[in-house]
Amino acid sequence: MVKVAVLGLQGAVREHVNAIEASGAEAVVIKRVEQLQEVDGLILPGGESTTMRKLIDKYGFMPELKRFAAEGKPMFGTCAGLILLAKRVVGYTEPHIGVMDVTVERNSFGRQRESFETELDIKDVAEDFSAVFIRAPHIVEAGENVEVLAKHNGRIVAAREGQFLGCSFHPELTEDNRLTSYFVRMVEESKQKTIV
Amino acid sequence: MRTGTDRVKRGMAEMQKGGVIMDVVNAEQAKIAEEAGAVAVMALERVPSDIRAAGGVARMADPTIVEEVMGAVSIPVMAKVRIGHIVEARVLESMGVDYIDESEVLTPADEEFHLLKSEYTVPFVCGCRDLGEAARRIGEGAAMLRTKGEPGTGNIVEAVRHIRKVNAQVRKVVAMDETELMTEAKLLGAPYETLLEIKRLGRLPVVNFAAGGVATPADAALMMQLGADGVFVGSGIFKSENPEKTARAIVEATTHYQDYELIAKLSKGLGAAMKGIEISSLTSETRMQERGW
Q1: A22/B81 Cα distance (integer angstroms)
Q2: Which of A31, A48, A134 shows the shortest C-beta gap to B39?
Q3: How wide is the angle at C-alpha B276 spanned by C-alphas B272 and B277, nearest 5°?
């Protein structure tokens, strides 16, 4: 069984843990840098990206998260987590972890009153995925090696680039675990490769 | 595409978990709060301790202040309305405030009825002292709760009482036989459906923060340890001697609430916390927690 971690500094951590367990993997909540070494994949949850970034810096997570990515281990960012993964954030000169070849715009659907839920067709995952968007970002531009998995009204809201998976919405807020299961399979495949 | 659904409104509060929501009265304070790592700010005209000191009727903040704060930060902005004040709530909703607090810190506008929060697109947070109150607010459509404590006192004792009470009552409901739930609903004055949902989930169906008296990093960590999902800090930050440092320390203590060595370090050299008030020195009319039902 693979070990999938959730960065537990702030945000919807418990929901991701439930979804990971329901997808047949072991879930670990990470609050300390050392814990990163013992896991096969990492989910960066939804929450407030500015808060998470402060805590990431405070506890020296940044170099270790970059190393985790450089080792080829799968990472999945949801909402705020997608912002952390992106190489470019509209309106900011520096990215956060900056490993996934996408440009994202924060709060791009508007404020909370514009937050919504809708059904999405996600390639290789589901044709009827119920997706909850909360003050969500979207992918303005995706690099050539990025595969677009889902769009909503013409905007990219889910994408994959090799080991990196990112989405604008919150798969953890529903009982539909198909996207998390898709990520758990990415982690299983990646682990198998390193063993072989 | 649907806006303002329970899932969207409750989900917004889920994203705040493990975080600190700070009261601010202007753009400058809002920026300090964001910089310190607050997950949201509450835009107010005066913090609770000043409301307490000023006396008179406390109302929704001047929209200028709310707008100024909304323009200053990228994190969500909350604002307070008087209990039952439909128009204050609609005004804030029209301005695009991210969350409304129907709050006992302000003077109630309606002594009989709270807002029917399910009718709004904007989500609401409400105060509670026990599970009956919590469940009634959920029944009206609150998407987030906060235990009331006693605002503006810098005294944690009431906040402790309320979070312990709510969580003990939740545990009791979860352990109950379903046959017993209707009677429990009657005793608590709680909607039966909400108790059923609590039993099914094994917890409250919405996020529950602690509020009303948090003044130090240790206070914040205490509330987390007692089972709060996060913390509201009102007067505790900008009435302290060193707001920047206190704000950062409270954020860290909330994340690492069981790391006592870290909390010791964070608590060093913060300067004086807000002075604080002994609860027994308050008359019943000046206890904000008794507003609302």
Answers
A1: 41
A2: A48
A3: 160
ipTM, interface predicted TM-score of the complex? 0.94
Q: Are B22 and B108 in contact (CB under 8 A)?
A: no
CA of A177 vs chain B CAs: smallest distance (Å):
16
In this prediction, residue B212 has a pLDDT band, given cuts at 50, 70 and 90, of very high
State pLDDT tens for residues B236-258: 899 899 999 999 999 999 999 99
DSSP per-residue letters across chain A: --EEEEE-SSSSHHHHHHHHHHTTSEEEEE-SGGGGGG-SEEEE-SS-HHHHHHHHHHTTHHHHHHHHHHTT--EEEETHHHHHHEEEETT-SS-SS--EEEEEETTTT-SGGG-EEEEEEETTTEEEEEEEESS--EEEEE-TTPEEEEEETTEEEEEEETTEEEESS-GGGSS--HHHHHHHHHHHHHHHHHH-
Here the tokens at position B217 are 């990093």
Residues 6+ apart with CB under 8 A from B280: none
Q: How far apart are CA A172 and CA A183, in angstroms?
A: 12
Q: For residue A51, which residues of chain B lie inside 8 Å, CB to CB? A: 19, 37-39, 75, 251
| B221 vs A33: CA distance, rounded Å | 21
